[in-house]
Every structure is written in C-alpha cells, then in structure tokens.
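Hi, here's the filled form for the chain we discussed.

Project: internal
Contact: R.S.
Residues: 216
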Amino acid sequence: MKTDNCSFEGVEEFKYLGTTLTQQNSIQEEIKNNLKPGNACYHSVQNLLSSSLLSRNLKIKIYRTIIFPFVLYGCETWSLTLREKRRLKLCETRVLKRILGRKRDEVTEEWRKQNNEELNDLHSSPSIVRVIKSRRMRWVGHLARMGERRGVYRVLVGKPDGKTPLGRHRHRWECNIKMDLHEMECEGMDWIELAQDRDAVMNLRVPQNAGNFLTS
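And the returned structure, exactly as it came back:
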C-alpha cells in the first residue's frame, strides 16, 4: 500500500497502541494477547488473593485494580461472541474461586469448591462481561458525538464498497451495541441519535443479569 509517498507492507496482523489488529478483524487474538499478561499478573498476586489476612473486599479491589486493566485493555472496541464471553468468564471464575475460597458442605461437612452460581451470588460487583458492555456504551456515545468531520466517526458509519462473502455474516460491533440496547429496553432506537444526548448515555445501565456467569 502506498500513500503520501510512503509504502506499507501488507501483513497478517500488527500491534498498534497496544491493540492487535488482524487482517480478518478477529478479536480472538486480541483477547488471547490480553489474557497472557492478565494471567501473569494473577499468578504474581495469587498468594494475596488466598491469604486469610486480607478481607474479601480488599481482594476484590486487588483483582479489579491490578488484573482487570490488563485483561480489558481496549475492550470498548470488542465485538464479543459467545466463545469470547465464555473465555472471559472462565478467567474471572478462576480468580473468584481463589478469592472466595472453599465452602463447607452442610450435609457432608466437607470443604468443596463453590460452583458458578454460588460465586455469582457472593460476587456483588459487576461481572467482567457487564463491565465490557458498560464501557462499550460510554465509548459509542463518545464516538457518536464526534461529528462527521472526524475520521473515526466516518469509519463508524461508513459503508464500504464490495460484496459480502457467502455464508453467515460476521458478528459486528454495531450488533453488540444493538443487543446491549435491547437488554436495556431501548430496542428500536437509533443508537447514534440516542448517543447525542450525553446525559442519556451516562444514565443507561446494563442490567446485572446481562453479564452474570450463567447467561450467554
């Protein structure tokens, strides 16, 4: 590719501002690359997360202030499928099991690992998927208010030329936005028009059950 007397090599993927961009616009590699430093950070603090000297609330704060930023870097632009949601939930479940520990069975009086439903009941903070959805809604409001002169806005609303390939259409970022609006009972509304109202966007809240451990 040549532009302004400069040549750029065509590659399968490259990293830009910490985000992995692929030729197929796949988010799987991006999430995979984010989970690597997130897992490394988890292993470095796992002794703290299982320590009996720290309160449960403090352990949750350690998780959300140290591990969260690595895993969720650039999540505002993610177009999540069920596969990616499950992958992120598994990551969070592993951390919560370390934080919340084991539970004593009332019948057998033996200690056992807590299941996902029990973890969900004990974890009062928004789940990782819910956090992604909330950040995505704030980001779409910011984009929509940029105006037509900004290149990012033109890319957002632009319709590229050419034909779509045969088969099932790829899950797009805009589809996620429409699904989020449906969960907030705003289905059918023009999300770009809605986002022009900053106060309206800030008041939108993704329901708690939209991102818990048991939903897809």
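Let me know if anything looks off before we file it.
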